[in-house]
Amino acid sequence: DGRHLISDIHEPGFCTFYEECGINPDVTGSLITPTIPCLNYSTARLLDKIHYLKLKSVCPMLDQGEGKTFACCSLGQLISLEKSLSLSKAVLIRCPSCAENFAHLHCVTTCSSNQSLVVNVTRTIKVNTTGLEKDAVTAYQAYISTTFADAAFRSCRNVRVPVTGGFAIATMCGLYAATLCTPQRWYDFQGDSSNGLAPLDIDFRLIPPGAPVPSGIVPYNGKVPGCNETSSTGNEPCSCQDCKEMCPFIPPPTSPPQPFKIGHIDGLLAVCLSIFCSLLLFFVCFLLLRTSDHYFKSRNKVKDKNGNDLSQELMEPKDVTCTDRNSLATQEFLGSLFQKWGTLMATHPLKTLLASAVVVVVFAVGLMYIELTTDPVELWSAPDSRARQEKDFHDEYFEPFFRTNQLILTAPGYPGHFYDSLLFGMYNFSGIITKDLILQLLELQTRIQAIEFWSDDLNRTVTLKDICFAPLNPKNPSLSDCAVNSLPQYFQNSVENLNAKVNMTKLGVTKEVDWRDHFIYCINSPLSFKDMTDLGLSCMSEYGGPVFPFLAVGGYENEDYTMAEALILTFSLNNYPRDSVKFKLVEKWEQMFLDIVAEYQKNPATNFTFAYMAERSLEDEINRTTAEDIPIFMISYAVIFVYIAVALGEYSSFKRILVDSKILVGLGGILVVGCSVLASMGFYAWIGISSSLVILQVVPFLVLAVGADNIFIFVLEYQRDKRRPGETREEHIGRVLGRVAPSMLLCSLSESICFFLGALSSMPAVKSFALYAALAVVMDFLLQMTAFVAVLSLDAQRQDRNRCDLALCVTVSTPRPSKPSQGFLLPFMKRYYAPVLLKPVVVFLFMFCASIFLMFHVTVGLDQELALPTDSYMLEYFKYLNMYFEVGVPTYFITTRGFNFSTTEGMDAVCSSVGCDPFSLTQKIQYATEYPDKSFLAIPASSWVDDFIDWLNPGSRCCRLYTSVIQYLQCLMCQKLMKDICSEWGGDSRYLTVMRKSCPFPRRYDSENVSPNFMLGSDLDCLLLPSTASRFMAYHTPLKNSQEYTEALRAARQLAANITRSMREVNGTASDFEVFPYTVTYLFYEQYLTIVPEGLFNIAVCLVPTFVVCCILLGMDVRSGLLNLLTIVMITVDTVGVMTLWGIDYNAVSLINLVTAVGISVEFVSHLTRSFALSTCPTHVERAKEATANMGSAVFAGVAMTNLPGIVVLAFAKAQLIQIFFFRLNLVITLLGLVHGLVFLPVLLSFFGENSLTHTHTHTHTHTRAFVVHLFLF
């Protein structure tokens, strides 16, 4: 019953069709009623008042004045046209000239008085209306000038949809989306009845000027206002966000400063080389001066017959300096005090051990209340830090950031295919985008969605809907309301939709269309409710929101989604406080999710290769590896114990080996370390300071290094010292303690103060570590001065009685040698090491200068992968994330209280619609996205303010529900004041709900987005109350490492600060109003914004007490203190330099180890510095030799050889964090401390150390010391 024809009449003032002829039977599933016009060749009609007013509101460009306006459409046609245009105008109305230009052509083809000049009917059908048979138009041609079409297209091509951040044109150009859309393709989509928006088929013919057209046809070429011009109704030009011509000139962000250069050479390298050359020159000049001085002195020497130098004068009392007096007084006081204390402890060993045990138990009882912090937020983000405060603010007003559970699936080797689509042409599909795999993904998704378990807390079965993130129905969600993003959501998770096929004819060609056509359409128009195929499927997800392709597939280039290499399946769950019942439910669901996915991965029938994670995964894996690596630490401690037990022995013969061994002493030393750690942890548990896994791993290791050194110094000195005639064993122990305890006090006091000052750090993990370590070092020293002295006293009794170690009842008849044992190290140091060592060592100067250069190139940050064990499934997930994800994490720009959104000025400062400030909040974010390499922002912010303005606009169908002309006119009054609310509901407060339900396209609103919610006034001038909090969501670019995360945070904060300054200038804004960015990752990366200056501060405050304590305990010996400090600084700087070479990043864990490095360096350096300062050998070189031989051997055995075996064991740990930051870094610290303490420091002291207390060679060491004491006392 249809016929094809070409219109015969094409004359000015004539209509081609008029009035409505019912519903188009060829159109099904349309979003509008597909009303078609009646074929009617007649003259245009003069409009009456009501008809004219309607035409003026719908098609103002056709208005010729009341009583003068002719049209070719009835009032019913105008109403249908208005409804048809409303869907498109809903997304275009933010740019009035675009919306007008879009409506312009449809008004011309439907209502123009010269309709016949533009329209050529090509198809009609017979219809029966009111008993009369009529011809109804189902297709026609519309002839348009390319000048008009191009100008209209240009006015609309940059209009955005605030809710998505994308272009409105993308939803109105079918498969071509925004990138490939052209004027012809744009109009083709508008004229395609299969898209659910057009009631009939329109063939838009775009005619260039001068091109031939059918007889009588005049291509329409009306006036087209540009997006930067006012519309015909007087509306303002479009905003910058929707019209590039309206954008002010924005200078590109400043490039980062160029590297510091001197000429063509790296400036820092040149400076370091200059420093090295200067130091080297200074050192050479110093050597020349010293050599010449020695030469002239040697020529003037007068010797006696025994070869003694008689040219030196005997020291007189007046020659003793104040420093010498202070130093001697300090040493005598401390030596005497510790000698008496040691004798007392050794005399009553059992009582001492009992008292020590009681004290330890009292402290350790607090362990019952210990809290182990595993939450990364609590560990690395201080409660008063900016990021933490911003998180708390966000969670208070908007609920915690939702939890992500995700799979990234690939199918390597799975064959792809080409598909010749009837609608879209030839497309290449990758192996992962096949129906079989999509169905398998849907099966897995359905299985996960069906997770359920019993909750004792709720006393019922819990399913996904109880805990899922349901943005469109948060109060009472069903399972289908849960936000699940995946490719099957394009088919509403329906197998039937995926299997759907239908034959379709286009341009005379009939082919089958299937899921691939629907998929191609949806990835280009994700907001569509109906595709343009005969399948008639929606692109919206089952839960009602759009499925953006960058969240459903990954691993593509240039938005070529059909060639994606990965499918992405994401379940979003609500987040709850850790003490909430629902937090337990979320964690239980996530564990079941992980179990299902792990089981699915092991299934040999699985065609996918994939990676996965749950929100709890990172914390779980860190805890798992910590538990698994505990045996490694235990083995490490066991190796150290075995070494200490063996190395402390004084082996004189094989027969006495069991007597001379020190297994019990070594065990006692280990127990002292363990008890000090337990006492420290117990004390802080008493007062409520939580511990962490870092403390459990590092503090015992640190205290063991410190404690073992003191143990070796004490025991070796006791073994080497011969008991004096008439001296008891206890007095002997006391005298030895008096000699070495000041050195032990020097190191322990320096380290404890160092760590206590380190607690000034703002990072909770560093702060708690410093506190625990400081008290543990103090307790270790106190227990060494008490319990360990008692243990050594008991062991000395056993050894004097020739009883075997461990087997105390067994005695050995072989007597103890009368000569004290020197061991192996001391003779080696005296004979070989010390004489060879003391030569000028320039290499250390080079190392120091090179490390300064390298220190400026150390990488700052900690990638999440390093916190995981080498066998963690999360490593594969992070690998997939970096390979396949094409968009970064979402970030919110949040406004705090104190800004008035109810005023026009206030809304202008936020929105990006017509009339808004070109430097508003959303507009500045838009500018930033144009430089993603600098701002790290990829997608502009969605704006509820812009959506609300669009909803209020009477030109949009979303505006309100009016049922009479009177109400319509009332709403029309608001058109020029559309930032005020015009309401027919009086004081009701349902605006957000009504807006959400009445708009025909999806919006991501939740009632928490604004607090308080939109409130209405009681009259037609409605009121939007000031908001206490609001947020605007954008997306970062893909961030692949901690440096990019840190820079993204820095850039977002700079942008937010800029927005804050401009918004504070709005009248009525509170002075403390602020805009800040927030996403969950900021909590962990904020520390890297300040970790360099904070690290320098922490290390500096650790270095100060080492200098001060050294000076004080050496009797204000400033020179020795400075040399001591210089060596520790060099160790620390060289450590950072080696970190750069060995790929060890600088972060909070490194900072903890660097603080530890200062403490361990004190052990390597301070003992030897004190030994040199107190030596009475006549020359610097001889004093350095003596200090190196005597104290260096103890330091080597007690610090280096205690640490190294335990450190080597850590290389076998599973956790990369331990391998890198505990094995590598501690190995570097120990080796650098060793070579600086036993190589560099003796050389430094031999050149620049303090002068000896005596200048005469005629006294022995003992006599000299007595002589100096005599000088001081008298």
Q: What structural class do helix, strand and pairing data support?
A: alpha+beta
Sum up the overall morphology in one term: elongated
Number of strands: 30
How much of the polypeptide forms β-strand, as a percent range?
5-15%
Explain this structure to me?
The termini are far apart. A hairpin with a 2-residue loop joins strand 20 (502-506) and strand 21 (509-513). The protein is elongated. 50% of the residues lie in helices and 11% in strands. The chain has 39 helices and 30 strands. The strands form eleven sheets. Strands 14, 19, 22, 23 and 24 form a five-stranded antiparallel sheet that branches. Its main location: membrane.
Characterize this entry briefly:
The protein contains 39 helices and 30 strands. With 1274 residues, the protein is α+β, with helices and mostly antiparallel strands.
List keywords for this structure.
cholesterol metabolism, elongated, cholesterol binding, 5-stranded antiparallel β-sheet, 39 helices, 1274 residues, 50% helix, disordered C terminus, alpha+beta, transmembrane
Element layout with pairings:
Layout: E1 2-4, E2 14-23, E3 35-43, E4 45-46, H1 49-58, E5 70-71, H2 75-92, H3 96-111, H4 115-118, E6 119-129, E7 132-145, H5 146-156, E8 160-161, E9 166-167, H6 183-190, E10 201-207, E11 261-262, E12 265-266, H7 267-299, H8 322-347, H9 349-364, E13 372-373, H10 376-380, H11 386-398, E14 403-410, E15 417-421, E16 425-429, H12 435-449, E17 452-455, E18 460-463, E19 484-485, H13 495-499, E20 502-506, E21 509-513, H14 515-524, H15 549-552, E22 553-554, E23 566-573, H16 581-602, E24 609-613, H17 617-647, H18 657-660, H19 663-686, E25 691-692, H20 693-720, H21 729-758, H22 764-800, H23 825-837, H24 843-855, H25 873-884, E26 890-895, H26 904-908, H27 921-929, H28 932-935, E27 937-939, H29 944-952, H30 965-972, H31 991-998, E28 1010-1011, E29 1029-1036, H32 1042-1064, E30 1075-1078, H33 1082-1085, H34 1087-1113, H35 1118-1141, H36 1148-1174, H37 1180-1210, H38 1216-1248, H39 1261-1273
Parallel strand pairs: 7-10, 13-25
Antiparallel strand pairs: 1-6, 2-3, 4-5, 6-7, 8-9, 11-12, 14-23, 14-24, 15-16, 17-18, 19-23, 20-21, 22-23, 26-29, 26-30, 27-29, 28-29
Helix pairs in contact: 1-2, 2-3, 3-5, 7-24, 8-21, 8-22, 9-19, 9-22, 17-19, 17-20, 17-37, 19-20, 19-22, 20-21, 20-22, 20-36, 20-37, 21-22, 21-34, 21-36, 22-36, 23-37, 24-35, 34-35, 34-36, 35-36, 35-38, 36-37, 36-38, 37-38
